Amino acid sequence: MKWNDIDQQVCSVARALSVVGERWTLLIVRDAFQGTRRFDDFQRSLGVTRHRLSERLSRLVDDGVMRKVAYRQKPVRYEYRLTRKGLALYPILVSLSHWGDEWLDDGSGPPLRYWHSRCGKVMAPVMSCSECGDTLKPEEVSAKLGSRLTAFVKARREAGEEIPPDSALAMEAMRFTPGGSEPESGHHSAPPEVIDD
Hints:
The chain is α+β, with helices and mostly antiparallel strands. Helices cover 39% and strands 10% of the residues. The protein contains eight helices and four strands. Strand 1 (66-72) and strand 2 form a beta hairpin. The protein is globular.
């Protein structure tokens, strides 16, 4: 599979990476959260070539993460502002920063500390359950198939075909259309747990 086709996988991580997975993209978004809006300021901050920055900003606009807003008319000049979709990346950036602080510290401590204005304290991101409020641990969370993958597995079962292993489901289901034809079977394992939405 080519990187340009990664958004075709039936996988939210792959689809998200198709938008923000290129190495300059999250740095552009990081700078936007820190108040950078103009092309020259992004370029000065990041040291990226103008051509590469232009490509990345255009892609972020096309993907609805940022929008262009004219700040001068003659000649027309634009700034780039985060949309609601872009603002929704904030917990990811803070978590990624925290991960870097924890695992990639050079011995001089975190480059930035995040301060919560409502309580007045330095904070660290914590992921918690939306239902019970408990802090989430990887060993206590499991993934269940959503509606499209459930339909894919059901169609394979009804056709008498083996179910792909969990690691291959996202790729195999790319070509699946509910009510449509199925891809060819390959090596498969026991079916994953399926739930209805």
